[in-house]
Predict the 3D structure of the following.
Amino acid sequence: MENVPYWTDNASIEIIGSRGKKLAAFRDGDGNVCKLSPVCPHLGCHVVWNSAESTWDCPCHGSRFKPTGEVIAGPAEEPLTPI
């Protein structure tokens, strides 16, 4: 996976383009990469990385997700979709 340049502690995260589509990528300290759809399942806005909390946050309605996509706080009820 190229172009995952944002490093925080021992992890890297980025919204990157892949074959014309965007994806949310998270690389943990062991080098494992988690690729997710950046589309919030609530109403379709794109999540952004919150480096202070190490979460994917939806700027539209406040849903928050773990780096691996699981819901932390709603209104979203479903996780980010793995790619």
Notes: Confidence is low (pLDDT under 50) at residues 1-12. The chain has no helices and eight strands.
